[in-house]
Amino acid sequence: MRTAGIHHISAIVGNPQENVDFYAGILGMRLVKKTINFDDPGTYHLYFGDEAGTPGTIMTFFPWPTAFRGRIGDGQVGVTSYAVPDGALPFWQERLERFGVPFLKVERFGELYIQLDDPHGLHIELVERAEGKQSEWTFGGVSPEVAIKGFAGATLYSSSPQQTADVLTQVMGLELVSREGDYIRFKSPAAIGNIIDLKTVPGRRGATGPGTVHHIAWRAKDDSEHLQWQEHVIQHGLHATEVKDRNYFNAIYFPEPGGILFEIATDPPGFTVDENPEILGEQLMLPPQYEYLRDELENKLPTLQVRPLEK
């Protein structure tokens, strides 16, 4: 079996309005779903992506505004990479300077990256990629010609890099394509969310909290293939959970030997299952099992505003 690539990446952050201001206001991504953590309904679950929340573009967040900052390290996605169109990096450099966001420029595998941290400490980077369709979303001065297309990929920090490499190739079906310094590069077939860089030198174990990635999810094309993935994972000696209904996709989870939590998520049904495309992300959407808590949750959860930022 071979996954097409990354479906989504989920992280823990702090203040939710700061999260919205950065990913929508500065990075220009669309808030495609405002819902709750199905396992902790008193917490938001916010989804950002392209105009439709296409698999391979979806970054999701659990805001924990009162929690202690986490520590990025082994057993986590260390860096989340976003793809922008060819020729777009000068726009992003100027924009980050204008909004006072510090960044570095580095080269890896022959590509130039702009590396920065979000307000809560997540490591992210931008890189030009010709592959993948342009986003159709325009917001806050970010037009489709320069907008984030979706994921370029991710850098994994593993406490057991060789075992993680084996899972990437033998279980997930990625192809090892290059080595450079302390990194091995893998590739999947999709045009977006298709590059994984694995750090080969273990470091300090990560600690969960705001500023860290919770899990990385891989794509399954439909429910039938999803069940095949579940069996496939178990046959390789890994513990896969039962299928969990997340409304916008079905999910199974399993920890790989290097400590990173992997998920496999179905592409359908997507984010228009409970909202029209024109109004995605505007209302608090609840799964049926929590609809009875709507009044309580709407009073408890902070009001969020997607707003263009002026600098």
UniProtKB/TrEMBL annotation:
UniProt keywords, alphabetically: Dioxygenase, Oxidoreductase
Listed InterPro entries: Extradiol_RC_dioxygenase, Glyas_Bleomycin-R_OHBP_Dase, Glyas_Fos-R_dOase_dom, VOC_core
Keyword field contains Nucleotidyltransferase: no
Span of domain VOC: 5-129, 150-267
Keyword Cytoplasm: no
Pfam families found in the cross-reference section: Glyoxalase
GO molecular function, one term: dioxygenase activity
Protein name listed in UniProt: Ring-cleaving dioxygenase
The species this protein was found in: Lysinibacillus odysseyi 34hs-1 = NBRC 100172
